[in-house]
Amino acid sequence: MNAFDTVHDDAEDVAHSELAIKQHPVHNDDRECSFHRSLLLRISICARLLAFVFLRLAVHLPLFDASPHLVDVAPSALSLLRWDAFHFLQIAQNGYQYEYQWAFFPALPALMRGTVALIPQSLRSTPATDLLIGGAMAAIACDTTRTLYLLTMHHFGTPKLALLTSLLSTLPSSPATLYLAPYTEPFFTYLSYRGMLFCAHAQWLPAAILFALASSFRSNGIFLAGFLLWGMLLSPFLQERRIHLSTLSYSVVLTSLVFSPFIYHNVSAYLTFCTHVASYHPQWCSNFLPSIYTHVQATYWGSGFLKYWTLQQVPNFLIAAPPLLLLYTFSTYHLKNALLPRLSAFIQDKPPARVQDPFLNFSLTPHAIHAFFLTSTLLFASHTQIILRVAASMPFLYWGAAWLILDYPSWGSCWVGWSVIWGVLSIILWATFLPPA
């Protein structure tokens, strides 16, 4: 907490300066930035070690579900086998055997199989153990704090604020799945951040490739295509009132690249279930858009518009409330005070007014739109508590937390306190196989 207090005192003096609102800042103190990145690496390692220690202590508590003991897994990896990790492990071992497994994308199981080769033969154990440890090793290597630092520096130009934001990211709402477990979140978050950083520098092709890789881990990666559309089409149109045909064509190609893993996953399922000669084909094969993913989500996982809005799910809504409220509040604040005035000026053919609040920097607008729509999807058409895992993939969450600390210190303290308490509690719940999943 002392580190947060120190950064808050320093950042408050500079965060609202004119320098902070420049979109392409000049890095006046490379030595300070280098020190910050080195510090963040050490803090990130310590955060993972702390999460590991808490997990090792919590595994001695009674299990709510004894399913992990039914799998041939060494005790050292048993704490990694919870919730969706069962499905990833089964797919990594045997491929897609059942229809419900198609709710999970193939990148993580493939990565788990690939990382087994990195485990020395002398340290090998059972196949399931090796796959779980291989996936966990890869997850641990996905450190996003320094990428978030660079991204924040680009948008705000203030090292102290970049450090504050990155420190806040070391307090995720699901440390077990982000730091330790063979889950999609660490890879999806890392690839999303890197792609966003390339977008910030108008390097569209590498950004599209990284977003496509992110989409191969999670279906909501298709939302990342919005950053390409914003940077290549919408933002230039708002500034220049025209769109070049070559840029439009190129954006369509790159956006298609981001969608390609989702399309490939569904086409593979269609070829598996719907093209062979048989007396029976699944009903979804006859749909206008025969998507196994939407079918499986609706049939096996109960996803769909307002389907999760039942009385028995109220506890999950309450658990997910802090990140939901922060994302909605901050995105609404930004869109109302940054995007709407810009659109009004565009319609009236006037130059946009200059803003003094760094959190209203127009370069943050695609992040605000992305956060708003992704949060709305999770709230209204999904298992809402998933926001606890997915929120870390949105830098906008941590910029919102920094906004609270700088502009509303009491609420900022509440956020940090909740992050610490819930982070520890979520590790205990994970270890004992209790929800939220």
TrEMBL record:
Keyword Membrane included in the entry's annotation: yes
Q: Which InterPro entries match?
A: PIG-V/Gpi18
A molecular function annotated in GO for this UniProt entry is: GPI mannosyltransferase activity
Q: Give one Pfam family, short name only.
A: Mannosyl_trans2
One GO-annotated biological process of the protein: GPI anchor biosynthetic process
Cellular-component GO terms for this entry: endoplasmic reticulum membrane; mannosyltransferase complex
Q: Which cellular compartments is it found in?
A: Endoplasmic reticulum membrane
Top enzyme category: transferase
Biological role: Mannosyltransferase involved in glycosylphosphatidylinositol-anchor biosynthesis.
* Name of the protein in its database record: GPI mannosyltransferase 2
